[in-house]
Design a protein that fits this description.
single chain, two-stranded antiparallel sheet
Length: 998
Amino acid sequence: MLIVLCAHFIVAIFAPLFFSRWGRAAFYVLAAVPAASFAWLLAQYASVYSDSAPTPTLDVAWVPSLGLNLTFRMDELSWLVSLLVLGVGALVLAYCARYFKSADAGLGGFGAQLLAFAGAMFGLVTADNLILLYVFWELTTVLSYLLIGYASTRIAARRAGLQALIVTTFGGLAMLVGLIMVGESAGTYSISGVLAKAAALVAAAGVPGTVVDVGVALILVGAVTKSALLPFHFWLPGAMAAPTPVSAYLHAAAMVKAGIYLVARLAPGFSGTEYWQVVITVLGLATMLLGGWRALRQHDLKLILAYGTVSQLGFIMTVVGLGSREAALAGMAMVLGHGLFKATLFLVVGIIDHQSGTRDIRELSGVFRSAPALGVVALIGAASMAGLPPLAGFVAKESVFAAFEANARYGPSGHLLGVAVLAVMVLGSILTFAYSARFMWGGFARKPSGTGVVEATAFKPVGWLFLGAPALLSALTVAYGLFPHAVDTWIAPYSAQFPADGPHGLHLALWHGVTLPLFLSAVVVAGGVLLFLVRGGFETLQDRLPPGLDFERGYRQSVVGLDLVAIWVTGRTQRGSLFFYLSVILATAIASISAVLVLTGPSWTAQKYFLDPGSPFQVFAGVAIVVGAVAAARANKRFMAVLMVSVTGYGLALIFALQGAPDLALTQMLVETIVLVAFVLALRSLPPGLRERGAGEHRVVRMVLGAAFGAVMVLVAVVAMGSRIAMPVSLELPKLAYEGGGGINVVNVTLVDIRAWDTFGEISVLAIAATGVASLIFVRGRGQRLARAETVATGSIGRLGGADMFSGPAVELARRFAVVPATNPWLVAGRTLAPERRSIIIEVVTRLVFHSIIVLSIYLLLAGHNGTGGGFAGGLVAGLALTIRYLAGGRFELAEASRLSAGTMLGLGLAAAALSGMVPLFFGGQVFQSAIFAFDLPVFGHVKFVTSTIFDIGVYLVVVGLVMDVLRSLGSEIDQHEEDGLGAVTLIEDDEPLEVGR
């Protein structure tokens, strides 16, 4: 199971590379992953359904102290839902290879997200830990947001993705609270363990029982939002802004089934809780009717299916949540049947849209004649959705009617209520038949007009590769209907967990004889046909009736109200005054800390001294810091203020070095240098001068607050040193670092091994910060590459005037220097700079030291485990090397120095770090557990390699990517902005690449 799960995510990481090489054909490579996983799933049938063998389970310790384990369990329910997740997922990915064009933007990211979604869904349905299930639950939420918003240039797509994200995240947070309440009540977060204790939990009286009831109700909120039931149904029709393959997978076979799966998973134990039946039955039936009613008002084929999906999700949720053996069998039969026919129909709509350019039933006419094979496939899917024999939909719907007949006759809810529920289901099924007929008529029939028949829609021929996925799904729909016994066998072990309502039991079959369910099916067909025949009058009736409650408008008004509240609060707290913000923060810190120091009676350290006798040179560093701080406060120029702030940072680095912390000193020095460069680059867009710093009515207040805060922090340090009651943990770190982490550099081993989780979170934050910087400045696309030097004419960058504006010996020397043989330029893109902007000395020095600095950075990376250095320091040094290239040769030199984009570097770094944490799981270890290998190599001698070095390489790449993003955003993009304003860049218009030095 873990291999299947990881395969989806690992291949998803490399998906953009596949698309850059093979174009849309890369979808076939991605489809092979769920296809192979589907084959593996079929091979697990014997072990899953064995009466003697234990249920296949994988348990990997994650955070044992918190009860968080990576526990996966493949029982009958997980196996059933995985059939849809993996099977339909493989077909949809293969379908994408014909649906999209190779020239479509963002296919690499789209394919990666769709494949990762399939992996997340597989993880969700196999997870046997409540918290792990929630992790995958939210992962599907985030991925669905990205997939729905694929067309990021369309505001409708972005809005629909955000709407789905907000609604499902709200439900997910409520569900998390419920999961914790149930898990704590049960004393375990194992799902199988919770279900084993469910009877005792439900029967508990008083507060414990109430906690369970409320917890289960909160879990149902998550299920209701995910499966688009009232009042949260509106996000699903809005999500039709996504590409059709996304709708076919997420909204037919995967994401919306997550809520139904959760209800099916918990129903054996918790269907008898206080709020279960009320929530599921009322919302389910109401959703069924509302979705069917609105489907009959739509003119977009995709929206007909969307509202039909809403209707049938309510239908399925009601059945699955009933809590009887018959309903469990019928509900899961309907889950499988719905996944098959609804995915078929969505894929058919994609073909219609792709080949004709429209989905509007008022514009489509005669499509069945133009594409008869497509029409037959659609007819099978629509007939199954309508519940016609001999198809899967008919078998499943008959079993549903039989289950609720048994519930009405023998169930605990009573005869009258059972009959009412069954009547509502029949009414909803009539609506289902009517919108199924509307779909077929609207999409394929020849339409009459006032003068005859609407002209046939122009329709391109449909290739078999394009039609293959929906055709196979429709064939499975027929096979399911003709041979339902196999599906009955698959579902029976799950349904056996429930008590039976009726004395005769229930089995899936195409023919049960002349029974009440068969009569109800006939009523559904007759009512549906009648409703379709009077569709014109029915549409008129719908138009005349008041619209009723508009839950989407309520959502939007809630969002607007929240925005207004946020604006009101922000306007009264964020006043645009830096002095006000700092005063509140510092005054609060001073008051709270001082109160604690006064009230608790602090313990003062016995050893107090003003100057460390072991390091008297600290006084020089201290003086430098004080001078830098005072000078920065009094500076009237921005550059001088930034420079003086850097002096305080370098002084602090010196203190670290004098205290015997070379790693901290090196890192502090490198960080200060990079920050100084970033500040200087950004200052180009700001006026050089600062306002008068010494005057102002708050001058005394600023001085008092600054001095008081500094004094309080000194007191905190002194008290902290005197308050220790145990031996410092740091005393054991050298031994732990060497024996557990295989290194003697305690700082580096702590970062990449002992506290690897913290470091992984930190580099993730770095990646987010880099993305934020790139988004705030002028970068227009995350994966956009910088222009290459070969596209720019010599001497056209930075020219400020005519050819004679700058003259003299220095400029003439620079012009001669620019003419360098193509085989040996000093800098690759140096020639692009105007002669008056070039520095011979800087270019020569850069050529001499760049590669040496890169080698030094790699040395620091590899030596950091046992000496000064590490991935962070090495990455900063490499970033400084790139900075030198940029300062010497401009933005085109930066493009030549870094062929990979900053986003790619960040992604590769995070991927390397993540993989170094996941690989130990395959060998029975824990996440981020290090392995030590010792061996001898010729020339190198004895080598000891620690796998945490791979994690350190990831840190290195993330830091390099961060620096590249800073240089690109604050450097290259501002350069380009200035050049665009001056019109100073001359692009080469011929098709031949420019030789270096030309």
